[in-house]
Amino acid sequence: VHAFIIIIPKGPLTDEHKAEVEIFQTIFGSKINDHTIVFINQQSQRELLHESLHSVIKACGGRYGFYSSRTDAAELITHVKDLLKENSSHLYTKDMYTHAQIQTQLQYKREKQNLQQQMTERTMGNQTQ
């Protein structure tokens, strides 16, 4: 994959938008950030970015652009080409995705084991009382 594009509406990020970005990063792993461009729906590039967007943009290497109903594909293609140059034409690969999925499964397994251990300890504690 040459690039992932996150489209964000103008204004502050809602909790729902933040959760969607986190899910995106969980599914594809942290390497996704090296291949992501943030596009913000904004009529004027002169408007200041809302503070809540800064963390998402920073996580994506500071790569962002603006779009509106007048924006054509040329700007998007320019951003993707810049990203490819920045990554020395290294693409996000199936192996990266597979690695991210394995890491996610291992994390879930560790969390499940921790919860099971806590439940066992509480059950044992209740039985001794």
Automatic annotation (TrEMBL):
The keyword Cytoplasm does not apply. It comes from the Eukaryota. Keywords: GTP-binding, Nucleotide-binding. The keyword Nucleotide-binding applies. Pfam families: AIG1. GO terms for molecular function: GTP binding. Residues 1-110 form the AIG1-type G domain. Belongs to the TRAFAC class TrmE-Era-EngA-EngB-Septin-like GTPase superfamily. AIG1/Toc34/Toc159-like paraseptin GTPase family. IAN subfamily. This is GTPase IMAP family member 8-like.
